[in-house]
């Protein structure tokens, strides 16, 4: 049954409304001014607030704004009653956060009917996900207490929003957030999930160097979301992962979904916080600004991936791979480091398209892109160069090391069971050419050289590679 809070300096209105609502079966509390009403709100945690507009100490608009400052209370219903000679500025009416305005000058039975419909609409409720642990620890005594609370909130939000300057370096931003939160609360570990359709990124920090399996940590974080989406890929950062670990997060943990407007942007989890009430209080203060940061990071990551990624294969696109190749070439020549590059091409791809159709051809490209992505080393950069041609950059890698990796790529593609994808037991292979960096190498030169070696591999029978210096020898 709904809990209703009535806030009005008129005893007659309080008693009249209270009697009506109790008869309807609601649980009712009352307050005679704005500050008393605010304190009663945090004590009573009602589903609906019915407040007068003009009252001593704090009016109904201000009361509404303070309640709405807490994201936890976004679903509480708030109705403001105005007197016959009272008008509310249109701007403040919209910005107040109130759900409805009713005039006391209306017929009393009409007021009661509309209030009853408002309460029974089913739209409003306090939401008991964490019971908020009494979000306000001490009752407000004077208006200055409320101003101090708002100042505290604004100061913390400004500090969090300053992190936007690190938007292009998400890992550094998250490290900064971790350091910031440690200034206010003590906890054994912090784990953050940022989730979008393009990627799920999990960051972990703890003081005891505890390790967790990625599946365990992922499931712990996702379980706090109502409707988690499945991202295209998962990324784990923070050095707290061990696939063989059986360690668990303590039973004493707090997880806070990060919600921007109505979208779940992620979860932040604290392992063994020293003061649960204090941690809930802090996260209530920061919820809005954290949601802005998480949304910005997810949007930026999605945009970046769209700009850098080939939509079909999930590998880097040609524009991005050439940009990174230019960077690595400059570094290799400046530092005297080796650098190798391979061009790979699907053998007889036109025949595949002609026989199975272009939709099936796209599935072949996807599968080979996926295979390359999971076969490259963490330091390598793989991309789709165009059509059925792929490119892999091997920074700080000589020809022999690159040759070893390319051999693995060719073997992986040979072992794919194509009957599951094409409905026919066909054999699909790759050919490759491997080049390396010299003192006078340019981006165009190393690619043309690798492409020429690839042509030799094709000419020599396909399903093989040729590396620089072995032009007279092909290897499968």
List keywords for this structure.
43% helix, 5-stranded parallel sheet, 476 residues, 5-stranded mixed sheet, 15 strands, alpha/beta, 15 helices
Fold topology:
Layout: E1 3-7, H1 11-23, E2 27-31, H2 34-44, E3 48-52, H3 60-68, E4 77-82, H4 90-95, E5 100-103, H5 108-119, H6 143-161, H7 170-182, E6 189-195, E7 200-206, H8 214-222, E8 234-237, E9 253-260, E10 263-271, H9 276-308, H10 318-335, E11 339-346, H11 349-356, H12 358-375, E12 381-386, E13 389-395, H13 399-414, H14 419-422, E14 430-436, H15 443-459, E15 465-467
Parallel strand pairs: 1-2, 1-3, 3-4, 4-5, 7-8, 14-15
Antiparallel strand pairs: 6-7, 6-10, 9-10, 11-13, 11-14, 12-13
Would you write up a description of this structure?
43% of the residues lie in helices and 19% in strands. With 476 residues, it is an alpha/beta fold. It has a 5-stranded parallel sheet, with helices on both faces. A 5-stranded mixed sheet has the order 8-7-6-10-9, with helices on both faces. Strand 3, helix 3 and strand 4 (77-82) form a beta-alpha-beta unit. It starts with a strand and ends in a 9-residue tail after the last strand.
Put the structure in a nutshell:
This protein is of the alpha/beta class and 476 residues long. The protein is built from 15 helices and 15 strands.
